[in-house]
Amino acid sequence: xxxxxxxxxxxxxxxxxxxxxxxxxxxxxxxxxxxxxxxxxxxxxxxxxxxxxxxxxxxxxxxxxxxxxxxxxxxxxxxxxxxxxxxxxxxxxxxxxxxxxxxxxxxxxxxxxxxxxxxxxxxxxxxxxxxxxxxxxxxxxxxxxxxxxxxxxxxxxxxxxxxxxxxxxxxxxxxxxxxxxxxxxxxxxxxxxxxxxxxxxxxxxxxxxxxxxxxxxxxxxxxxxxxxxxxxxxxxxxxxxxxxxxxxxxxxxxxxxxxxxxxxxxxxxxxxxxxxxxxxxxxxxxxxxxxxxxxxxxxxxxxxxxxxxxxxxxxxxxxxxxxxxxxxxxxxxxxxxxxxxxxxxxxxxxxxxxxxxxxxxxxxxxxxxxxxxxxxxxxxxxxxxxxxxxxxxxxxxxxxxxxxxxxxxxxxxxxxxxxxxxxxxxxxxxxxxxxxxxxxxxxxxxxxxxxxxxxxxxxx
Length: 460
Fold this sequence. Notes:
Elements: H1 4-8, H2 18-27, E1 29-33, E2 38-40, E3 48-54, E4 56-59, E5 67-70, E6 73-76, E7 90-92, E8 96-102, H3 106-112, H4 114-174, H5 176-184, H6 190-205, H7 213-229, H8 235-244, H9 249-259, H10 261-302, E9 311-313, H11 315-325, H12 327-332, E10 335-340, E11 348-350, H13 352-369, E12 375-384, E13 388-395, H14 402-405, H15 425-435, E14 439-445, E15 448-456
Parallel strand pairs: 10-12
Antiparallel strand pairs: 1-8, 2-7, 3-6, 3-8, 4-5, 4-7, 9-11, 12-13, 13-15, 14-15
Helix pairs in contact: 3-4, 4-10, 5-10, 7-8, 9-10, 10-11, 11-13, 13-15
């Protein structure tokens, strides 16, 4: 049978007068539960203050276990708490003994047991603070996990391209001596050599839009016919390289006129050698540039080159960095993303790292909600009354029902399957927006869901 010694073992109750602890003993009921017992399921009413005298209890289920209590510990409903029903299962891990006080007694306790009530309210305050810190940390880790998976895919493509093209370039360079021999046997004047060089590098410097598949195929056929007429060896392969850089029959006629039919094959072989080298170098440069963009995006996203305080935040930078890092997921779902953010949008005073969590959650949720084909996400920012910056995220998913709209910002609420969502995302989003003295609203109907974020330009 529970006694005063059992209650004074609770650090939170050690300063409570004995008569108030005795009141608690007189009105509470002692219960014993075996290991593995399910205290309540999600959705069950929470009607008792529970004092865990012996044993252990876990809130949540694998892989999303949230809290673990070891006796002595205080759980359940607390004075002035608005908790009415559970959102996570509560399981007894080992044989446990508890004191349970029904919520009907809490009003009486608040009027007759001041110190006891104050101690329990302090427990609620600590619980809220600890939960908020834990939820934010878990959501940061979840965001990092999503981004790291996408980043691995994003980096794999340019890295593979660099390795592949570097090997090809190495093999290609080994064939250069053979081309050099052919050139040495040609009797070209300095003037002819200069003409060929200027003509080649002028073509390489002229960046034009790529040809369509049909246009390129037609050009390759024309070039192949020209090369066959001039009895130039390896005509189809050479035509493929020439078409890549949009050489025409007129270009080949020009070279034929400059170097003569006896030298045209050797000159075009040398030209092809330069084109292949140029193509490999360009591909390596583009892949390297892609990697540099990704590194810059993750650096911007993680805020790793700046302090952790409030500062002027360019919303477009954070949103575009997030889109870049979620690029693999966006492409895998074939979601068309449009961003409409004016170049002159004012900066806001805030915490970039926190806001990047907001963008990650909203964009990630929109991608998940988008249909498998024809998914869209439109992001738009604008200024209202020269005081507020509004940012909207609109997707064409199936929508959120009215009943669910009222719950989506609650802690642990999620519509995703088990193991696919902790229900912390939108709760953390709302907390971050409130930290910036802003607001977030949702409007939804089938085929159109819009989250609207309002943040004051000045947070003074």
